[in-house]
Amino acid sequence: MNKWLVTGGAGYIGAHVVKNLLENDFEVVVVDDLSTGLERKIPKNVKFYKLNISNTSELNNILKNEKIEGVIHLAAKKAVVESVLNPSLYYRENIGGLVSLLDAMRNSSVKKIVFSSSASVYGTKKEDRVSEEVETNPESPYGETKLIGEWLIKAEQKARNINWISLRYFNVVGAGNNELGDTGVNNLIPMVFSAISKNERPQIFGNDYLTKDGTCIRDYIHVEDLAFAHVLAAKKLTENYSEILNIGTGQGYSVKEVMDLIEKVIGEKINYEFVGRRSGDPAQTIADPSKALKDLNWKAKLDLEEMISSSWNAWQKHNPLNEK
C-alpha cells in the first residue's frame, strides 16, 4: 500500500481527503494541531499525531519512522478577511509551516507533495474562465501565501528533483457525510447557516460589482469531488510529473443565486441583507478545469444543489456553534 501523510487531516477538506484515500487503498497518517480541526473526524484506523508542522524535527521523525511515500499538505490558515487584518500571522503560519515541511521532507528523502493552493492567487480577471497560465495577482495576504508556497515548491524541485502537484481550489462546499461538514464559518454557505441558526439576517458583502446582478461570482466545487482529485494527484506523482491544476467546475454562480438556491434547499426565505464589500474579494473567479481533465482524467460530478443540501444536512447534525 501507498502510505501518505496528510497535514491538516482533521480539518474540513483534510478529513474528506483522508476518507477518499482510504477508499482507494492508501494507508494514511495524519498530522494536525487541532487548532481548527476536530479529532472526531479522523478514522480510528488512521494513525494520528497531534503536532504543529512548525516542529520540523518531530515532523522529520514521523516521515522517517512511518516510511512515508508522499505528503498531501493542507495545514494552513485560510480566512481571507482575517489575513487582511493580520497578514503576519498568515505569512508565519502558511509560509513558515511549508518551509518546515519541505525541510523535513528533504531530511527524510520524501520527494512527492500535493499542495493545497487556491484560486485566490488569480485575483480579479477579465477572462470568463481562468486557466493555470493566466497572470497571478492575489488580492489578499492569504492568496499571496498560496502563491509563494507554489514558488517555494518549484524551487525545491529545482534543488532536489521532487515531484509536486499544486491544486488550486475554487470555492469548496458540501459534505461527504453528516460527520464531515464544514465547521468553520468563513465561507459563504456556513456563514448563511450560522446566521440562520442565530436568527440573524445573512449578509451579502457588496452588490455593486460589475457582474450580472452586482454580487460576486464564484465557481463552487463539492468537497467530495475535490478530495478525489487529491487521490488522482497522489497516483499521478508516481510518474515524473509536476504541474499546477485548477480544481473547479467551470461554472459560476453569483452570491445572490446561491442565496436563492439555499432558500430552495431549506424550504424557507432567509431574508438576507446587503452590506459593504469585504477587502480581498475579487468580483469574479471561475475555473477553466480542462487541464485537470486532460492530465488527471478528473471532472467534477456533483452540482451546487447537492453541495448545499449535503452541507445543510451536516450542519443540522453537527452545528459548529454548539461544538467545541
Question: Keywords for this structure?
Answer:
324 residues, alpha/beta, Rossmann fold, UDP-galactose 4-epimerase, domain 1, 10 helices
Describe the protein in words.
The chain has helices at 12-23, 56-65, 80-85, 87-107, 141-160, 188-197, 223-236, 255-266, 290-296, 304-317, and strands spanning 2-7, 26-32, 47-50, 70-73, 112-118, 163-169, 171-173, 203-205, 217-222, 243-247, 252-254, 273-275, 284-285. By secondary structure, the protein is of the alpha/beta class. The chain has two domains: 2-173 and 220-247, NAD(P)-binding Rossmann-like Domain (Rossmann fold), CATH 3.40.50.720; 188-218 and 250-287 and 301-322, UDP-galactose 4-epimerase, domain 1. The strands form three sheets. Strands 3-2-1-4-5-6-10 form a seven-stranded parallel beta sheet, sandwiched between helices. Strands 7, 9, 11 and 13 form a four-stranded mixed beta sheet that branches. α1 links the parallel β1 (2-7) and β2 (26-32). The radius of gyration is 19 Å and the shape is globular. 47% of the residues are buried.
Summarize the structure.
It is built from 10 helices and 13 strands. It is α/β, with parallel strands linked by helices and 324 residues long.
Count of the separate structural domains: 2
Taking the sheet with the most strands, its summary is: 7 strands, parallel
How many H/I helices? 10
Shape label: globular
Give the SSE layout.
Blueprint: E1 2-7, H1 12-23, E2 26-32, E3 47-50, H2 56-65, E4 70-73, H3 80-85, H4 87-107, E5 112-118, H5 141-160, E6 163-169, E7 171-173, H6 188-197, E8 203-205, E9 217-222, H7 223-236, E10 243-247, E11 252-254, H8 255-266, E12 273-275, E13 284-285, H9 290-296, H10 304-317
